[in-house]
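Go through this chain.

——
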Amino acid sequence: MLGRELRDPLGAIRTALHVIDHAGPSSEEASRQRAIIHRQVGHLAHLVDDLLDVSHVLSSRIELDQRRVDLNEIARQSLLALRGDTRMQEHDVSLAVQAEPVEVLGDGARLAQIVFNLLDNALKYTPAGGRVEMTVGREGGWGVIRVRDTGMGIAPEMLPHVFELFLQDAPSLARPRGGLGLGLTLVRRLAELHGGRVSATSEGVGRGSEFVVSLPLIGPAVVERGSASGVSVSAALPRRVLVIEDNPDSRNALRALLEVWGHQVEVAEDGPRGFEMALAGRPDIVVVDIALPGLDGYHVAQGLRTALGADGVFLVALTGHGHPDDRRRALEAGFDLHLLKPVDPRVLSEALASAPARGAPV
């Protein structure tokens, strides 16, 4: 099953690239094939994220950054994350939230992952023209998010098993729609890690389903001034950027993307060369892979912080190392940001826009 799920998008990408090579990059057909590549790369990234997440969750190696979180905002953000999904135009999708905050103690990113997975599941198993409804409310001492759909439903014999790992592999599954069967397992485990619970109900095949996540409510708190998190996003000014990346395709693609955005870009293929170029050229931003030959990214960051000072350069770790310990180690080494490959270009753009101006503009 894993082989099939990985090979299918890879096959589509390879075929699309072959078509572009023969049709020409400016043709209408090439535009359609690029859309296929975008979709399949996103699908692959989602599969890899799920595999890594379920590994961390089931081995109890996940760390929660728990804070006061409003489930109304979690629901809104999760819906916004799907705004570019074509399925959103094919379904009647609605959200009903409370007038007052529904606050729980939780990791906002992980709670958003729970809701995103439930919405994705509903869209996946609801034919075009169907309805998906999400509501946020309070029930007793619980904050509750409900996701209902009018889709394919769940057979009674499968209901007790819907949160089991790799359920998609079961030949009798009533809802075979691809994927690795990891999403609902992650939903249940993440809810449990937050002291919550999740349930599924359905009146049977063809009669839709409902998933309910319940999380313990916390009392009201005094709002602390100046504690708002997040970075104000604005159009990134042209910057001098150094990219240190040993993979030639990743290096060249990132260079091209940054140049399209108007930045002045230099590249280095290993740690020692990148370190030398950063000292000599004093770029505004250095984007560094962690697993570099000669001198790894942690040592590059530590050396640059020592040589250039805390405000001498904005350091971005762009890496495949995604465990919470990897992020902690990157920040301790002196990086300002830790971004996980494959990075969404919008996230990278926001990261560059957040870098403080240093010296004269390009």
Summary: Residues 169-178, 221-235 have pLDDT under 50 and may be disordered. The longest helix spans residues 28-58.
